[in-house]
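Why APC4 protein? Reviewers of the renewal asked for a concrete example.
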Amino acid sequence: MTQKDITFVADFLTEHFNEAPELYNRKGKYFNVERVGQYLKDEDDDLVSPPNTEGNQWFNFLKDSTHLKESPLLFPYYPEKSLHFVKRQMEGVIDQCLQKPADVIGKSVHQAACMSLYKISQSEDSTPQLFKLPFLWNDKTSNLHYVLFTMLENSISKIHILRRHTDTSRSVSNGILAVEFGNFLNNSINESSDSRCYSCLDAHFYDDETITVVLKESVQQEGKERVLAQLPLS
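Here is what the prediction returned.
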């Protein structure tokens, strides 16, 4: 160690570990601890060196405010406690707030429909990811829910559109359909079907009547073409 290091440690000990007679009556608390570390201890004991809140603008503001002083909306302050203690208190309050909505929402959710999208072999160790980029859209004018998604591997050139009525007791025509892009962007009918085949990178609703898709040329070559297309839902 250099002399500078030794001086630094000595200054630290001098500042933080001076004798504190006012703490002698507390078991094992004969010296001031390092002021930052005491906040991080995971214990319920009071801080050895609590912060000095005198002159704090927020405390003065609360003290002078008749309405905020006893407001249940303000989280109580524990100046004698560590951050771990405050964290546990806050987690308890948050859990209590979320429990009732969780119970109510959980009891109100039920399965409206079940559709089989694909089957996989039971012998496979890990299930492959076949379902990609689900995007949700709610058409409030027509009271319809939409889900856009793609299926990997065997149908990368298709985008699937699932449509359900917000009233689960009502059904809509063409509840689910697929749009295949394939080679619809070919400049000429003479081009081969394999030369300009496209797959969907991403898809979102632009508005209630229009879907925006990002397409990628599927051929294995450098400089694959990207296309931004807007498709009318009709």
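The longest strand covers residues 198-207. This is the kind of structural detail the renewal will allow us to pursue systematically.
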